[in-house]
Every structure is written in structure tokens, then in C-alpha cells.
């Protein structure tokens, strides 16, 4: 499972931070940060979801009010939002 985070879309509500500890607050930028991620495009960050964190990743994606977070299964199918 992998997660994609669009930092440009983020509005800094930090609801993802409350749902999964892979997201951290960047108070200076007013945006969340996805730890251990790789920037694949300008502002788009991607990482694999560790085993045991799948539910937290899904909750983080569902909690985002602007759908800046997307979760994909191992086959590349979008499962959240």
C-alpha cells in the first residue's frame, strides 16, 4: 500500500497529524509533512505504508478536508478518498 500527499493542496488543518504519526506539523509553512516520503513531482510526496499502519493511513486520508491525501493498494488502485 502506498500513500500520496499533495502538499500544495494542504491547507494546514493538521487533521492527518492526529490520525497517523507519519504526518507532522510544519507550523512555519502552515502545512503538514509526510515523514520518510519522496517528492515525485513538485509538491507531491509518496511513501509506502508500513505493515500495521494501513488503517492509520486510511484514517489520515479520510480526515483531510481538502483530499490532499490519497491511498493506493498494492495493485495501484485508489482506495481512499
TrEMBL record:
Annotated InterPro entries: Fe-S_cluster_ET (IPR051269)
Pfam families: Fer4_15
Keyword set includes Electron transport: yes
Keyword annotations of the record: Electron transport, Iron, Iron-sulfur, Metal-binding, Transport
Entries under Gene3D superfamilies matching the protein: 3.30.70.20
GO MF annotations, alphabetized: iron-sulfur cluster binding; metal ion binding
Superkingdom of origin: Archaea
PANTHER family xref list: FERREDOXIN (PTHR36923:SF3)
Protein name (record): Ferredoxin
The species this protein was found in: Halomicrobium zhouii
